[in-house]
Amino acid sequence: MTSEQLKKVIIPQNLRFTKYEETVPREILGEITSLSATPHVLIITGMRRAGKSTLLKQINENLFSSKQTYLNFEDEKLLSFTSEDFGAVHETFLELSEKVDVVFFDEIQNVDKWEIAIRRYHGEGIKVILTGSNASLLSREFGTKLTGRHIDIVLYPFSFREYLVFRKIELSDKDFYLPEISALLRKEFNIFFVKGGIPEYLRFEREEIIQQIYEDILIKDIIVRYGIGDERSFRELAKLLLSNPGKLFSYNKLKTNLGFGSVNTVKSYISFMENSYLLFQVEKFSPSLKKQIINNKKIYCIDNAFLNLVSFETSDNLGRKLENLVYVELRRRKYTIHYHREKYECDFVLSLKNKVVRVIQVCYQLDDDNIAREINGIIEAASFHDLGEGLILTMDQEEEKRENGIKITIAPVWKWLLKIN
Questions:
Q1: S-S: 157 plus which of 59, 89, 197, 302, CB 3.0-4.6 Å?
Q2: CA-based nearest residue to 299, from 363, 246, 239
């Protein structure tokens, strides 16, 4: 690409990038601030339209004094861009800023061999901050060129706390316990539970936005990128998994039910969806890595909006959707997540630094039909991991009890979401 062609893209992009807009400050900004002084390349990954570009603007405004060194590779004018064009990009940056200390590249995975140019920037002492929508692609390519010299950060859709900021609801610790505030928060949680946390959808409230994001993930991030020929079967698998969050599945059963030629095809398709942050697999907890791999898995989705607008409805969807929402928050809090299943089942076994620290059960509403099962599951999981307590998250119920020496806290999900740990 010529310098003039690049300027027609870079100049308007940078004008938009440096223009102040009122946005929701992302909670992850604190972590990024602490990392900004390191020499490492920062790689921000996450689902399409989770707010990565806005986060870059916030990083720039808060840390780097609006330097005009931004390029978004989603721009259709850059379809012919190759890694060889990075030299001309740098020259344009210098014309705009005179000195380049920091560069921001958005959706970098759209450029083949991008890691070569990034290594050059890094070698010259320039701070590099990237975004991308494919976890595996970024980590694999960086692993060969910048091993140990990059830090990965995952951005998720809005948390409930960020959602409340978006809704301009500000709370102090004292306000939290007022009855009228509790009623307001419960009402807002009902909306968040259904609509999820994708910023653009919350802003415009158009269902077409979720449908288009879903299509972009399937087509651009998966079908085209990985060269999937049997698009129909792939779509059937995606919709089936989206319709069954939190349910056990096996690769063999999916292969048989959907008519795939091999188990490896099923595994590959699911891994593609994981790499694009659409779905996530959870394995059964076991001290044996081999058993973890061969046991049945569970699937969760990045945001409840997809469950409500893309998946098939099922009779027990409310409980599954609540469980899905909790799962995403646990990922946001950086737990390693497994499920427990022996005589009874517990939804989440949470580890930090290879040590199990908490067990959580999720149930939309505890009643006579399910309370024994839920209590037994949390007791068995807590005892199995030598923990003295367990947590059951529900829609509204709140209580504490002790059974079999285990302290069991029953709490509303919306209250738990507002706590940091």
A1: 197
A2: 246
* β-bridge partners, 393: 362, 411
Determine, yes or no, domain membership for 178.
no
Domain closes at, from 120, 154, 188? 154
pLDDT at 95 (0 to 100): 86
Q: In what order do the strands lie in the sheet with 345-352?
A: 248-249, 297-301, 279-284, 336-341, 345-352, 355-362, 389-394, 406-412, 399-403
What is the CA angle 129-134-34, rounded to 5? Answer: 30
Full domain range(s) for residue 30? 3-154
153 in Cβ contact with 31 (< 8 Å):
yes
Q: Give the separation between CA 20 and CA 23, rounded to whole angstroms.
A: 9
Q: Is residue 15 part of a domain?
A: yes
For residue 269, is it within any domain? no
**CA dihedral of 105, 108, 111, 114, whole degrees rounded to 10:** 80
Helix (H) or strand (E) segment spanning residue 44: strand 41-45
Q: What whole-number distance in Å separates Cα of residue 158 and Cα of residue 366? A: 28
Q: Is residue 199 part of a domain?
A: no
| 200 Cβ contact list (under 8 Å, min separation 6) | 49, 209, 213
Distance CA 155, CA 262 (A): 33
CB 406 within 8 A of CB 378: yes
What pTM was computed for the model? 0.94
Instruction: Measure the CA–CA gap between 88 and 316, rounded to whole angstroms.
Output: 56
CATH code: domain of residue 83? 3.40.50.300
pLDDT band at 142 (very low <50, low <70, confident <90, very high): low
